[in-house]
Structure formats: C-alpha cells, structure tokens
Amino acid sequence: MPGQPPTDDDDGRPSLATQRDTETVYQPAADSDLLARTARSHATPGDRGLDVGTGSGYVAETLAEAGVDVVASDLNPDACREAAARGVPAVRADLLAPFREDAFDLVTFNPPYLPTEPDKEWDDWMEHALSGGEDGRRLVDPFLEAVERVLAPGGRVFLLISSLTGIGDVQRYAHERGLAGEIVADEAHPYERLVVIRFESRDESPLP
C-alpha cells in the first residue's frame, strides 16, 4: 500500500510488515483504485476479462460494473471467497496456468511489487499478496512471460507496478517477450510512483 510512514529500513522505504492491515486478503488501496479506474476507462462492454491476483475482488467488480464479462483469479482461497461475495466468478489459480489460449480481451494484474529481502519474508498469504521478492518482480516476470498466450486478438493487459519495482526494467522485459507497452496512468506517492502500463502484442500494436 502506498503512502505508509517510513520505518527504520536503511533505504527509508516502508517495511513490508507495516503494510499488513489484514490477516489474509489484500484490501483495496490506492494502487487497486488506480488500476480499477484505468482499466475501466479502457474497457468495452462485452469484453471478456480476467483479473489476476484479485485479492478482495475490487478491480474485478469495477470491471463487471462497466459491462465486462470478468473472471477473478487468486491463489489464496480466502481471496476467491471475497471476490465471489462481490458477485464475481472466482477461480483459484496460480497466475494464468488454468486458462485457455485466446480467452480474454482484457487482463488486469496488481501484483505483489514490494522488494523484500529474504530474511524479512514470512510464510503466509499476506507475504504472497505484498512481497515481490528481492527485485519486486517475483510474479511480474512470470506473468509477462505467459500473458500473451491467453490474450484474444487485439487483447490488452493493464499491469500496475511501482517505481520500487523498476518501471523501465519491466517494460524492457515485456518488450523482449513480444509485448509493446505504454504508461497510461500514474500517481505520485510519498515513497514511490505508481503506474499502470498497457501492454499489447507487438504483432498487433503500433507501439514501439
């Protein structure tokens, strides 16, 4: 969650532990809202959508309100239950593994992006929701490697990341895997900049 007060971490960044406002499921915060608003503004009623790592289901619910035929997915069974309680179909899934090729016009992902040293990790669902590993890209990179497979022709991906994760690094990694990206929304917060990057297949997009 952006905007938390700093702790005694050497780099001044809020420690992962200060981000834990809930026991098992990540609740909507500024990053969730930025992604939801941005994806909704680019959505078309009737789009087939997937919200990966849905957490509470907030982004998926926002897309459903815009007329998207959306499915929510999360590895955390408690998150799946929360999303379902919002009226969104939810599937327990590890990223994109169970979904068929060319299935979605719109894919959203608010990944765990906080860089975290291994000795500051813990083994629970909030670690999975918040910790991006040492470089912040523990799930970002595998997602980018796999997401084109599930995109329908002309499909779009909306990925929320932080400046803590390395925005240029993420864009280059995606470009090397056939995805063209551009920043379509951003917000400044006290300790980071949040951005939403829209990705499309380079075969179908004029983006560089």
SSE diagram, text form:
Layout: H1 30-42, E1 48-52, H2 58-65, E2 69-74, H3 77-85, E3 90-92, E4 104-109, H4 125-130, H5 140-150, E5 151-162, H6 167-176, E6 179-189, E7 192-201
Parallel strand pairs: 1-2, 1-4, 2-3, 4-5
Antiparallel strand pairs: 5-7, 6-7
Brief summary of the model shown:
The protein has 208 residues and is an alpha/beta fold. Helices cover 27% and strands 25% of the residues.
SSE run: HEHEHEEHHEHEE
Helices, by number, come to: 6
Poorly predicted runs of 5 or more residues: 1-17
Strand order of the largest sheet: 3-2-1-4-5-7-6
Q: What percent strand? A: 25-35%
Average pLDDT, all residues: 83
Dominant shape: globular
CATH superfamily name?
Vaccinia Virus protein VP39
Could you name the CATH topology?
A: Rossmann fold
CATH class wording: Alpha Beta
Q: What gap, in angstroms, lies between the N and C termini?
A: 31 Å
How many domains, as an integer?
Answer: 1
Helix- and strand-based class?
Answer: alpha/beta
- What can be said about the biggest beta sheet? 7 strands, mixed
Share of residues in helices: 25-40%
* Gross CATH architecture: 3-Layer(aba) Sandwich
Rg (C-alpha, Å): 16 Å
Number of E-type strands: 7
GO cellular component, one term: eRF1 methyltransferase complex
Protein name: Methylase
Keywords: Methyltransferase, S-adenosyl-L-methionine, Transferase
Domain Methyltransferase type: 50-109
